[in-house]
Amino acid sequence: MNRRRRIYEGKAKILYEGPEPGTLVAHFKDDATAFNNKKHEIVDGKGVLNNRISEYIFENLNAIGIQTHFIKRLNMREQLIKECEIIPLEIIVRNVAAGSIAKRLGLEEGTQLPRSVIEFCYKNDALDDPMVSEEHITAFGWASPQEIDDIMALAIRINDFLCGMFRAVGIRLVDFKIECGRHFEGDTMRVILADEISPDSCRLWDIDSNDKLDKDRFRQEMGGMLEAYQEVASRLGIHNINTEHKGTGPVLVK
């Protein structure tokens, strides 16, 4: 991909110009970040795992009629995606109290919420991605009321699917974060799922032991992050992923 024009580089991915108009290539990096990049290490092999896990989930979402930017996986670290205009929001769906909601509301971590809760954050690292209301979103023009309705409908459908998918392999979906984008085809615009869904963007707990199988192992310095991601991939039936790239563990980025 070095011969193609780099469009954007984020904390976990690089986007390159795609082979056809309206396409991009997403390259999954091995960078592990937390607290808006205040903590940063290289975990050898993480990008390979996230590419495969996200591919598996997005393919299944496409198959049930949920529109995503995913087209196909190109290789171990890259996938072909539809170009879209990212809406500057992080959409968080919570099923169980953990992370910031437990701290903000004084809830014991692991408490089942009365119902799934959808929260919005303004996507801005310099401001630490502050939580915002629908009123903020429409007032500042980040999304229209109709787009908010579309995003929430997408989030609810994705949550229903993911809860069932993970429960079937002994994993509890505590919460997850998604991003959405505007995809234009001629005169038609549709809000679609973008970015990725992987252990980087979900909280995943073993149903029986409550062992964490997600990025909290990195955030909380628990160790075993790569092994946890491999466990998720294995349970989802993504075969031979461990033989494609054996990670060597985290390397501190100075």
Structure explained in plain terms:
The chain is about 30% helix and about 35% strand. With about 250 residues, the protein is of the alpha+beta class. The strands form three sheets. Strands 8, 9, 10, 11, 12, 13 and 14 form a seven-stranded antiparallel beta sheet that branches. A five-stranded antiparallel beta sheet has the order 1-2-3-7-6, with helices on one face. Residues about 250-254 have low confidence and may be disordered.
Order of helices and strands: EEEEEHEEEEHEEHHEEEHHHE
Query: How many helical elements?
Result: 7
CATH H-level superfamily title of the largest domain: ATP-grasp fold, B domain
How widely separated are the two ends? Answer: 26 Å
CATH architecture of the largest domain: 2-Layer Sandwich
Counting helices, strands and paired strands, the structural category is: alpha+beta
What shape does the CA trace take? globular
**Could you estimate the helical fraction of the residues in percent?**
25-40%
Query: In CATH, what is the class of the largest domain?
Result: Alpha Beta
Query: How many structural domains in the coordinates?
Result: 2
Please provide the count of β strands. Answer: 15
Low-confidence stretches: 248-254
Task: Determine the CATH topology of the largest domain.
Answer: D-amino Acid Aminotransferase, Chain A, domain 1
